[in-house]
């Protein structure tokens, strides 16, 4: 049962912000940088050893594509320069590239979600975009990946990386499975003992970071990713220290939305993600909260992986996806998709959109406040921690910020973010309260050594120091939950 909050959330705001939220995919790109390009073909593998230092767009070809024909699919590899100027090709696997470059970052991009030809152009990014900020700008001292090799699994299919379907009009391709397989093949060909090149590389650390849609992509692809990790390093004495960051999306998406989208993408028939036949059956029946289940599966089955969640307490996009899901007449809103000016058309909103929902739906929307969403999130974290504790040691930490913002690792001010959303010294007051900034926190996780303790972070809550960055600032209880915010991860060998 939804708890209702003190002040009802107006449903116009709800509908408006649904679209604002879904559209707020991070495409900001301040400064252009040069990309090399490489096309995989019968005679060209675009091997890491052959790439120039810096950023390369790799076009894998084959069955990869974006949801429309307009854009070609490519993924991004960023190869760091070697500090002593040596060339990677001349080095042996022991010394070499990865002794100077300790890690591999596999980053799953965000970029919205869609389920039909009409919903795709407004709700999901149609092209792979080149990322040069945050982790992909090596100039920042706090960049934990300054000397790492980074690979971006780009996203232009609107299908959370799990689609393998074409719409009935033949115009929109949900091709996430094929695209992701192509990138992971390149990774397997270039990293670890599954590498086909003469010079396989063994990073000491691996980070999987999912941004928004990419966060769901990682949890869905977990078995493939970790099976690869286990096999790729079996001939090497050290298993890489491994972390998964979920940057927005803690596994809370309403069942109705999961069903709608999974059907459109033909997700449940897929066997590439290594779900068991029983799980595939459950998925088809549509009665299982597959996202929740997958998060629990990860915590329970990959005990040597640290799982780190990053989110704001009132994340607007997550809240809308959670509360706005499952409306029976959602198609009433279809005209908005090709014509967003209808968002400002009160006649449409009050004459057509709102009356098309039943009284109970409107009541549910009114009762589904961001504070309720936050409480659901806290409940879910408690469930994750309880499961982890049952296995012996907690391997889940979280960084909870005030505000409504969504997905943090790609914003241009990433290195200024603190637990009070943005680095408040910008505004002349320091209210970090002794807690690490987001980049510092990630840095400490990525560079952890035995004996360290990684603490969860929660901003002090609503009240002085809260800097909402997107309206409407919700009303309700945003206090840190004692149990969730006191969780930490003691670094030892599992
Ligand atoms: C990178 O993306 C921006 C748009 O986000 C575009 O203007 C620019 O041309 C792209 N740069 C390269 C090298 O592709
Ligand atoms: C990288 O960060 C530095 C330091 O803030 C900045 O001067 C530079 O413009 C950034 N480069 C890109 C491509 O964003
Ligand atoms: C993905 O690739 C397979 C094999 O090439 C192909 O049969 C399938 O149609 C592709 N999926 C899409 C959505 O194009
Ligand atoms: C916050 O901003 C100040 C001034 O811009 C900067 O010196 C400081 O390093 C920033 N802190 C974090 C955690 O980003």
Structure, explained:
It is a single chain. This protein is of the alpha/beta class. It has one domain (29-323, 378-490): 3-Layer(aba) Sandwich (Rossmann fold), CATH 3.40.50. The protein has helices at residues 11-23, 96-100, 120-123, 176-190, 213-232, 255-265, 277-285, 290-301, 316-323, 346-353, 359-367, 370-390, 438-446, 482-485; strands spanning 36-39, 54-59, 75-79, 103-108, 149-153, 165-166, 173-174, 205-211, 241-247, 305-312, 396-401, 453-455, 457-458, 488-490. The model is unreliable at 1-30, 85-95, 421-432 and 462-474 (pLDDT under 50). The structure holds 2-acetamido-2-deoxy-beta-D-glucopyranose (4 copies). This is Pectinacetylesterase. Keywords: Signal. Residues 1-28 form the signal peptide.
Write the layout of secondary structure elements.
Layout: H1 11-23, E1 36-39, E2 54-59, E3 75-79, H2 96-100, E4 103-108, H3 120-123, E5 149-153, E6 165-166, E7 173-174, H4 176-190, E8 205-211, H5 213-232, E9 241-247, H6 255-265, H7 277-285, H8 290-301, E10 305-312, H9 316-323, H10 346-353, H11 359-367, H12 370-390, E11 396-401, H13 438-446, E12 453-455, E13 457-458, H14 482-485, E14 488-490
One 2-acetamido-2-deoxy-beta-D-glucopyranose binds near residues 29, 32, 35, 129 and 130.
Look at the structure and give the mean pLDDT: 80
Radius of gyration based on Cα positions: 22 Å
Span between N and C termini? 39 Å
Shape: globular
Please outline the major beta sheet: 10 strands, mixed
| Count of helical stretches | 14
Q: Work out the helicity level.
A: 25-40%
Uncertain residue segments: 1-30, 85-95, 421-432, 462-474
Instruction: Label the CATH architecture.
Output: 3-Layer(aba) Sandwich
H/E element string? Answer: HEEEHEHEEEHEHEHHHEHHHHEHEEHE
Structural class: alpha/beta
Strand order of the largest sheet: 1-2-3-5-4-8-9-10-11-13
Number of strands: 14
| CATH topology title | Rossmann fold
As for the number of domains, it is 1
CATH class: Alpha Beta
Attached small molecules: 2-acetamido-2-deoxy-beta-D-glucopyranose
Beta-strand content estimate: 5-15%
């Amino acid at each position: 049962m939804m708890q209702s909050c003190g002040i009802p959330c107006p449903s116009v705001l709800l509908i408006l912000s649904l679209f604002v939220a879904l559209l707020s995919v991070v495409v900001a790109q301040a400064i252009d940088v040069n990309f090399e390009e490489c096309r995989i073909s019968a005679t060209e593998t675009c091997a890491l050893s052959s790439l120039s230092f810096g950023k390369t767009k790799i076009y894998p070809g084959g069955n990869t594509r974006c949801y429309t024909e307009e854009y070609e699919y490519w993924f991004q590899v960023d190869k760091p320069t070697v500090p002593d100027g040596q060339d990677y090709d001349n080095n042996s696997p022991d010394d070499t590239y990865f002794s100077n470059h300790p890690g591999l970052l596999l980053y799953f991009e965000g970029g919205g979600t869609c389920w039909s030809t009409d919903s795709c152009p407004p709700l999901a990014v149609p092209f792979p975009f080149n990322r040069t900020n945050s982790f992909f700008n090596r100039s920042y001292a706090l960049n934990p990946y300054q000397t790492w090799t980074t690979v971006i699994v780009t996203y232009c299919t609107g299908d959370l990386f799990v689609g393998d379907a074409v719409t009935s009009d033949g115009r929109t391709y949900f091709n996430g499975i094929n695209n992701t397989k192509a990138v992971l093949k390149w990774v397997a060909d270039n990293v670890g003992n599954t590498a086909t090149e003469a010079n396989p590389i063994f990073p000491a650390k691996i980070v999987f970071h999912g941004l928004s849609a990419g966060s769901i992509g990682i949890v869905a692809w977990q078995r493939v990713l970790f099976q690869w990790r286990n096999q790729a390093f079996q001939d090497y004495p050290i298993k890489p220290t491994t972390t998964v960051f979920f940057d927005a999306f803690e596994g809370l998406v309403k069942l109705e939305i999961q069903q709608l989208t999974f059907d459109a993408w033909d997700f449940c028939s897929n066997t590439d993600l290594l779900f068991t036949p029983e799980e595939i059956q459950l998925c088809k029946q549509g009665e299982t909260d597959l996202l929740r289940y997958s998060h629990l599966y990860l915590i329970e089955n990959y005990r040597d992986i640290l799982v780190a969640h990053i989110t704001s307490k009132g994340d607007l996009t997550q809240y809308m996806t959670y509360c706005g899901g499952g409306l029976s007449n959602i198609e009433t809103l279809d005209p908005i998709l090709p014509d967003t000016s209808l968002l400002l058309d009160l006649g449409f909103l009050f004459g057509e959109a709102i009356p098309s929902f039943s009284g109970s739906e409107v009541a549910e929307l009114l009762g589904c406040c961001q504070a309720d969403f936050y409480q659901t999130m806290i409940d879910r974290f408690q469930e994750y921690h309880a499961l982890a504790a049952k296995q012996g040691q907690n391997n889940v930490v979280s960084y909870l910020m005030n505000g409504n913002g969504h997905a943090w690792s790609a914003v241009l001010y990433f290195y200024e973010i603190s637990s009070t959303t943005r680095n408040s010294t910008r505004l002349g007051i320091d209210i970090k309260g002794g807690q690490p900034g987001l980049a510092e926190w990630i840095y400490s996780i990525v560079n952890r050594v035995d004996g360290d303790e990684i603490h969860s972070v929660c901003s002090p809550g609503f009240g002085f120091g809260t800097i909402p960055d997107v309206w409407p600032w919700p009303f309700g209880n945003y206090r840190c939950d004692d149990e969730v915010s006191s969780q930490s991860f003691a670094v030892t060998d599992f």
